[in-house]
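In the lab's daily routine, each protein ends up as an entry in a very long ledger. A line of letters takes care of the sequence, but it says nothing directly about the fold. The fold becomes a row of whole numbers, each drawn from a learned catalogue of backbone shapes. The protein below has been through that process, and both of its lines are reproduced in full:
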Amino acid sequence: MGRMLLPDRLPVRPPRRRTKTRRAFIHAFAAAMAALAAACGGSSDEGNSNPPPAASPTARGVDIATRPAAAAVTPVSPTVPAPTATATATTPPAPTQPAQPTATQPPAATQPPAPTGRAVSVAGFTFTPRTLTVPVGTVVTWTWSTEEPHNVAGPGFNSGAPTRDGRFSFTFSSPGSYAFNCEVHPVDMTGTVTVQ
């Protein structure tokens, strides 16, 4: 095998030229770091309240922030507790006024009671609840949101074509027993509303 010859000097890439922008960035970064160090740190010598000498305002034509003077530290005696201030505010009591008489109206005996509502939901292939006992004038609302289409039908009411998402309300204005079912699933999905 032959001997491998190495040159005395390996080719070295010449350094990149630093542009004015890069130089300005480096100087600004250095100034920011110096300001940060001055703000965060300081010397461990707490008794020294002399500010450090200010940096030169310019370096190579680029303005550099000067280091701010360190704040003076006032020593506190460990045997004397720091004074604390407590403030108490007193609020005078609010003046009381005599209660104003309120006008009352006699109850109207001729008004019918407001209709009440009951809800029936569909879970799977079952109405829940299956049986209801309600007073005359009650609004019953059936709701469903299922994979299979459903509807509600009974004597005198029908929710229409079966759908997967549905809501149907009916007001029972006469006493009696009303059987209802889903027309798609008439054997499994049945129920009764008893109106008194």
